Amino acid sequence: MRHPQDLLSAYVDGALSAEEATRLAAHLAVCASCREVVEDLLAVRALLRQVPQPHPRPGALAGTLRRLEGKASPAPRIRRLLPVLLAASALALLLYLPWPFVPPGIDRTTHLQHHARITLTHPLADAALNAFLAVPFPDLFPEEPWDR
Length: 148
Prior knowledge:
This protein is mainly α. Helix content is about 65%, strand content about 0%.
């Protein structure tokens, strides 16, 4: 019989069938190295029985559960409110900015010329320029030619 190293722990624990335990006991009668492993396993088992059982302090479980519940409840609320807050702040920023936005210190004529130069290089230049010019500029065009 080969050395049944994988069965020795199960033998010590009493987890083998009667037939397997009988065969392993016969092997242990003739194999000193396997007997030493079984003796070591029995010694470790005896040492583990001597280790005192830990006793948690009273109320430890209740305190831990209370802390876990306290930390778990605000997080989902924040996760649900974060997209709403971001959308509201983006909307407020868009409503605050004048449309079309003209940077401070630049007159509208210069801004219109700059915008026209940029949009003419874009593939949708006609649509973008038409959309931009659709916004009334009474200071640039006091008398709009299309109103005649």
